[in-house]
Amino acid sequence: MLSKTINCPTPEATFELGERLGAALKGGDVVLLKGPLGAGKTLFTKGILSALGFDTADVTSPSFTLVNRYEADLTIYHIDLWRIEDPEGASFSVGLGEILEDEDAVVVIEWAERLGAFDFGVDPVEVEISGDGDSPREITVSGEIVFEGD
C-alpha cells in the first residue's frame, strides 16, 4: 500500500490536494476520510468533486441527510457518518451495500472510522487529516492510487 503525507498550510492547499486525488479517481473507488471535527474533510471532498466536474458551490456536508448524491463526470456519493455512533448499524443506516453496487460511482465517506472493519470489496483510499481551526493540515493519503504531483 502506498502512503504519502502532505503538509497543507492553507484551506486552498487542502482543496487543491482533494482536486489532485479526485483527478485520479474512477468508478468503483472508495475514499475514506478520517480526522477531527473541523479538520477539513468536507473541504477536501469539495476538491474531489471539483476535479470530477461538479460545481462546489452546491456541495454541503451531509451531516443530517447522511448521504448526498452528485451527478458530474461520475456519480459521487458523499456520506457523512458523524451522527452515527453504532459501527454495526452505520453501513445499514446509509444503505452502503446498495451504494457500493454502483460500480460506476465514486464513494466518499467522512467519519469513516465509524464503520469499524467494514468490507468494501475493494481497497479504499484512506485519507487522514490532522489539524483544525487556522492551523496547517497534515494529510496522509494511503492506498493503491497515484495522483498528480507524485
Task: Describe this entry's structure for a reader.
25% of the residues lie in helices and 28% in strands. With 150 residues, it is of the alpha/beta class. It has one domain (27-131, 139-143): P-loop containing nucleotide triphosphate hydrolases (Rossmann fold, 3-Layer(aba) Sandwich). The chain has a seven-stranded mixed β-sheet with strand order 1-7-6-2-5-4-3, covered by helices on one side.
Our measurement of the CA-to-CA distance between the termini, rounded to an integer number of angstroms, reads: 14 Å
Q: What's the CATH architecture name?
A: 3-Layer(aba) Sandwich
Helical stretch tally: 4
* Outline type: globular
Structural class: alpha/beta
Oligomer description: single chain
Give helix % range.
Answer: 25-40%
Total beta strand runs? 7
Overall mean pLDDT stands at 85
Low-confidence stretches: none
Q: How many distinct folded domains?
A: 1
CATH topology title: Rossmann fold
The whole-angstrom Rg is 14 Å
Class in CATH? Alpha Beta
What topology, given as strand order, has the largest sheet? Answer: 1-7-6-2-5-4-3
H-E string: EHEHEEHHEEE
- Largest beta-sheet details: 7 strands, mixed
The CATH H-level superfamily is P-loop containing nucleotide triphosphate hydrolases
What portion of the residues fall into strands of 2 or more residues?
25-35%
